[in-house]
Write a structure and sequence with these properties.
Length: 111
């Protein structure tokens, strides 16, 4: 599903784009930190709301489509921040294959 492509003036949400960096902890695991790459303007539209069972309780899942100007460095496993909100990127794609915009399917963490 692709959301309607916005007009440039609709990119009104300022987001911080971050990539993960994992450092081995010496015990077979890793410590994850997040590196800020850029601050970007984007449009955010709600896509769906559902529930899933985690550890015997229901947890709400809110997904969104975030649309921003085209970039080549965005992919799944990265994230956007908007204040205290965290949007985990599930997938990123060029909706009309014209390199004007990129759309990201995201899940909002902590909702």
């Amino acid at each position: 599903m692709t959301a309607k492509l916005p007009e440039i003036g609709e990119l009104r949400h300022q987001l911080v784009f971050q990539t993960p960096s994992d450092t081995p902890d010496g015990a077979g695991g890793a410590s994850r930190t997040w590196n800020t790459v850029a601050t970007l303007w984007a449009a955010i539209s709600s896509a769906s709301v559902s529930e899933r069972r985690i550890s015997e309780h229901l947890d709400g899942v809110v997904t969104h489509v975030i649309t921003l100007r085209y970039r080549t460095d965005i992919s799944g496993g990265q994230r956007f921040l908007s204040g205290a909100r965290i949007f985990r990127i599930l997938a990123a794609f060029d909706p009309d294959e014209r390199r004007r915009f990129i759309q990201c399917r995201v899940e909002e963490e902590g909702r």
